[in-house]
Design brief:
The protein has about 170 residues and is mainly alpha-helical. It is about 70% helix and about 5% strand. The longest helix is centred in the first third of the chain and has 35 residues. It is a multi-pass membrane protein. InterPro entries: Cyt_b561_bac/Ni-Hgenase, Cytochrome_b561_oxidase, Di-haem_cyt_TM.
């Protein structure tokens, strides 16, 4: 498969997404699964809520650019592996969207973005909030698996000589 080059904006948004998503997943699972002092949990919650809320408009732009790129390209996936890779990329976008939306809807307090912006709590009904918490947790588990799969595929391609990461470097 011949790949199209990515714009600088797409590369920037890819790496911004990677850093924020990996940080939020690792730190979120860490404080959820291990015994951590309350101040650490509160700090991680503050940083994760702030970062992921601030990330939302960047992710919307990333979705738009990705959709525009895929629609404007005449590229067709010709092999099963290419079709699977394309499907997994879109699945990652879908699950990230679900994680971000449920992350907002599960908030049981004002959304504090770095003490600079305060967004009112979107829902008041505790049953709905609990539902979105459950969806959010499971979506995060699925996202972690998809990120691991994505990173494994990149490593596999790099080790086998197909330099896929070069498409995401800024020097091109």
């Amino acid at each position: 498969m011949k790949t199209l080059s990515y714009t600088r904006a797409q590369k920037f948004l890819h790496w911004l997404s990677a850093v924020i998503i990996i940080w939020a997943l690792v730190s979120g699972f860490y404080v959820a699964l291990f015994e951590v002092a309350l101040p650490v949990k509160e700090w991680v919650a503050f940083i994760n809520v702030s970062m992921t809320t601030a990330f939302l408009p960047f992710f919307v732009v990333r979705l738009y650019l990705s959709f525009r790129r895929s629609r404007s390209s005449a590229r067709q996936c010709s092999t099963l592996a290419e079709n699977v890779a394309s499907f997994v990329h879109w699945l990652i976008y879908l699950v990230v969207s679900l994680v971000l939306v449920t992350g907002v809807l599960m908030m049981d307090r004002v959304i504090n973005v770095f003490d600079l912006l305060f967004i009112p709590q979107p829902l008041q009904d505790p049953d709905w909030i609990q539902l979105f918490i459950k969806i959010h947790v499971w979506a995060c588990v699925v996202l972690a698996a998809l990120v691991a799969l994505h990173m494994s595929a990149v490593i596999k391609h790099e080790v086998s000589g197909r330099r896929v990461l070069v498409n995401m470097w800024f020097h091109r």
